[in-house]
Amino acid sequence: MVGAGLSGIGAGRYLRTELPHKSFVILEGRAASGGTWDLFRYPGIRSDSDLTTFGYEFKPWREKEAIADAAQIVGYLRETATENGLDEHIRYHHRVQRASWSSETARWLVEVEQTDTGERRYFSAGWLFCAGGYYDYDEGYTPVFEGRDRFRGQVVHPQHWPEDLDYTGKKVVVIGSGATAVTLVPSMADDAAHVTMLQRTPTYVMPIPRVDKLANNLRRWFGDDRGHALARQKNIAKQRAIWLFAQRFPGKARQVIRRFNEERLPAGFPVDEHFNPPYNPWDQRLCAVPDGDLFRSIRNGDASVVTDRITTFTEDGILLESGRELEADIIVTATGLNIKLLGGIDLVVDGRAVDVSQSVAYRGVMLSGIPNLAMAIGYTNSSWTLKIGLLCDYFCRLLAHLDEHGHDAVWPVADPDMETRPLLDFGAGYVQRALDTLPKQGVAAPWLMSMNYYNDAKVLRRGAVVDEHLAFASATAPVTRERAVLAP
């Protein structure tokens, strides 16, 4: 398994529980577990999904807050790892560089850089499970800004937040309008002199309660396990209903969101200028604002929103196309992330380099033409982890099927004439920039990248494990020490 974050720890637990006889290792390139939630250190970092669904199905979320900060999430993940005996399976400072598949041995030879020593190590594995999501954890996305070198202040990207950054009493401009920006602005506003959110295009922003009172009551009334299950089903249904409403009645959804915004903003605030995107709700992910904190900062005068385009950075701030100049001591480029599918691992199958953009996703778990490889990609229209749990269920069922029938290898086979479309049907900039590098999806099951939890539960958890689109094989040569170098 590659990655000791939300997906990797979850997958490890499913393997330990469902297939306890299987041996596995979790390779983590960084020095700590927790993935995104340990890496990002910017002020206010928190989930934008409720932890009843963003957490694991098998482990109740017991904190009062449904929208949790990074420290709470990391604690939850590490507690999960310890409770399920996963700590001994995690190898830190192990960054996977390359994986080569041999059909003769039905094994992957995984080349790893040990980042603390620079050494190369090799692991032999029957399966490769890529649990690192699809973000590039090394570099975030920052467009080229004219005149950036002229700016006399500090420019910071949230992915590389300096531990010693002091913004007390300073003028801050946050460039961006996505989840990171709407988190940063209210979090910095209490200490900064003023924070300006500078956006080129508005985003849909919805206030949500930080505390889910009903979920807390359900756990109190029915106990942690049963209460967690009930609250989880309630929230899954709620998320699905909101998404369906936005898809079927985009005009009505736009009106509802606008009304929520208008009620929480100062009288006379230009809502349509700053909070009325040109696209329909859920063409991109809605930004959650716990307890309306962004709107509160704007009402208090601690923060403001500017919708304009950047002409150039200046010595003292940013010059906009309108001619207005925003003064700043610190500029935060909350301009998004980059996608690096499968952690950027170079894949080779029987000596041939694999171009994953030519493959097609199968059940959202495997890729056509690539044996014994699984990937963990969650939902874009709901909590990420809901999909991870289902695909881990399917992964374990598939491994059990191989064992039962004496197969060593399996891979999906796609019709080369099959109609395809982009892997992620999502308008976010980070997705659009990467579409040419991503695999494709089909237009019908099992080649759809489904975003429907209820359908996925039927197919991945309770449906048939195999179908006519899967090919199976067995090794033709034994694994020897010479063929596969094993790392202790």
UniProtKB/TrEMBL annotation:
Query: What are the coiled-coil residue ranges?
Result: none
Per UniProt, the keywords (alphabetical) are: FAD, Flavoprotein, Monooxygenase, NADP, Oxidoreductase
Which cofactors does this gene product need? FAD
What would be an example GO MF term here?
flavin adenine dinucleotide binding
Question: Which InterPro entries does the entry link to?
Answer: FAD-binding_MO, FAD/NAD-bd_sf, Flavin_mOase-like
Q: Which family does it belong to?
A: Belongs to the FAD-binding monooxygenase family.
Q: What is this protein called?
A: FAD-containing monooxygenase EthA
Q: Report the source organism.
A: Nocardioides simplex
